[in-house]
Every structure is written in C-alpha cells, then in structure tokens.
C-alpha cells in the first residue's frame, strides 16, 4: 500500500468520525427536544408528579449528553488505533494542502451560497416579526380609541335620550295643563 492510499484511508476515517460526531450531536439535540416536550406534557397532565418527572428528564438527558462523548471516545480510538497512521504521516504534504484548499473552497461556497441568503432570510423574518408586533400595537391602540369613541357615542346617545324623554314629559305636562284649562273654560 502506498502512502497516498494510506493518507486516503486516514482522511476517510477522519471524515466518517466527523459525520458520526455530527449525527451524535444532532441526535442529542433532537433527544433533548423530545424529552422536554414529553416532560412539559407530563407536568401539564399531572402537576403533582413534577419532582419524579424532573429527575427522569435530567437522568435521560444526562445519558443523551453522554452519548456524543462515548461516540467521541470510540471515534478517537478509530483514529489513533489506525495501523496506517505512521505511514500516512509520510504522505501528509500534498494531501494536507489539498484538504486545506478543499476546506477553503467549501467555506467560500457556504459563505457565498448559503450564509448570505440565510442571513437575509433571518433579517427579513426579523423585519416581518417587528412589523407584525408594530401592527398588533397599532391594532390595540386603535381598539382602545374605538372603545373610547363608542363609550362617548353611547354617553351622548343616553344624554340625548334623557333630553328627549324629559322634553316629552314636559310636553305631556303642557298638553295635560292645556286640556285642563280648556276643560275649565268650557
């Protein structure tokens, strides 16, 4: 086996270890999300079991946090127990430069193609959320103004109604007096 093949084995081993670590970390994050959602669901159903559920959640979460460390240990064992490591170090010159260039191109690609659009998307989302909150504030303010106007209209209508009733009672009294006076004169 020549040194470039050995270097390729070494780099592939490192790449697989990185993928395994990423999967372990992703799995841990998903696990925490599931554990916390079930924890909240359990507490909402039976609040008196909160201490037991808290203990179980922390124990399970601790195991899940330990899982990436266990995977890291196993991965490091694969890297350092590789029998071709010594031979691969002899071929590290060109391979290392090629890997550095590939990594630099990958970083440039991510920054150019993914990072900027993602930041723009996040900024747009932030703007939409801020606009939505501002619209909600305006809506609340407009609702308060509308309620104040409605209360003022209601007060004015009640005043007008009481004026109309008072005027009608005065007119009724006048009509009664006129009728009495007309009856006396006859």
UniProtKB/TrEMBL annotation:
Membrane topology: Multi-pass membrane protein; Single-pass membrane protein
Compartments where located: Cell membrane; Membrane
GO BP field: proton motive force-driven ATP synthesis
GO molecular function: lipid binding; proton-transporting ATPase activity, rotational mechanism
Residue stretches making up the V-ATPase proteolipid subunit C-like domain: 16-77
Cross-referenced Gene3D superfamilies: 6.10.250.1580, F1F0 ATP synthase subunit C
Pfam families: ATP-synt_B, ATP-synt_C
Top-level taxon in the UniProt lineage: Eukaryota
Keywords, in A-Z order: ATP synthesis, Cell membrane, CF(0), Hydrogen ion transport, Ion transport, Lipid-binding, Membrane, Transmembrane, Transmembrane helix, Transport
Assigned GO CC terms: plasma membrane; proton-transporting ATP synthase complex; proton-transporting two-sector ATPase complex, proton-transporting domain
Ion transport keyword on record: yes
InterPro entries reported for this sequence: ATP_synth_b/b'su_bac/chlpt, ATP_synth_csu_bac/chlpt, ATP_synth_F0_bsu_bac, ATP_synth_F0_csu, ATP_synth_F0_csu_DDCD_BS, ATP_synth_F0_csu_sf, ATP_synthase_B_chain, ATPase_proteolipid_c-like_dom
Family: Belongs to the ATPase B chain family.
Its biological purpose: F(1)F(0) ATP synthase produces ATP from ADP in the presence of a proton or sodium gradient. F-type ATPases consist of two structural domains, F(1) containing the extramembraneous catalytic core and F(0) containing the membrane proton channel, linked together by a central stalk and a peripheral stalk. During catalysis, ATP synthesis in the catalytic domain of F(1) is coupled via a rotary mechanism of the central stalk subunits to proton translocation.
Protein name: ATP synthase F0 sector subunit C
Organism in which the protein naturally occurs: Cyprideis torosa
């Amino acid at each position: 086996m020549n040194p470039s093949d050995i270097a390729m084995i070494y780099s592939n081993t490192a790449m697989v270890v990185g993928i395994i670590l990423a999967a372990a970390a992703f799995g841990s994050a998903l696990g925490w999300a599931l554990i916390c959602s079930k924890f909240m669901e359990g507490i909402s159903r039976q609040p008196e079991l909160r201490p037991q559920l808290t203990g179980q959640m922390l124990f399970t979460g601790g195991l899940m946090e330990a899982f990436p460390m266990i995977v890291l240990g196993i991965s490091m064992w694969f890297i350092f127990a590789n029998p071709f490591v010594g031979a691969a170090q002899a071929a590290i010159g060109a391979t290392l430069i090629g890997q550095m260039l590939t990594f630099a191109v990958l970083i440039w690609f991510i920054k150019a193609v993914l990072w900027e659009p993602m930041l723009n998307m996040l900024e747009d989302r932030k703007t939409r959320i801020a606009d939505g909150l501002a619209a909600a504030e305006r809506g609340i303010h407009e609702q308060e103004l509308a309620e104040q106007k409605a209360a003022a209209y209601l007060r004015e209508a009640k005043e007008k109604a009481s004026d109309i009733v008072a005027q009608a009672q005065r007119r009724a009294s006048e009509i009664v007096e006129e009728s009495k006076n007309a009856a006396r004169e006859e």
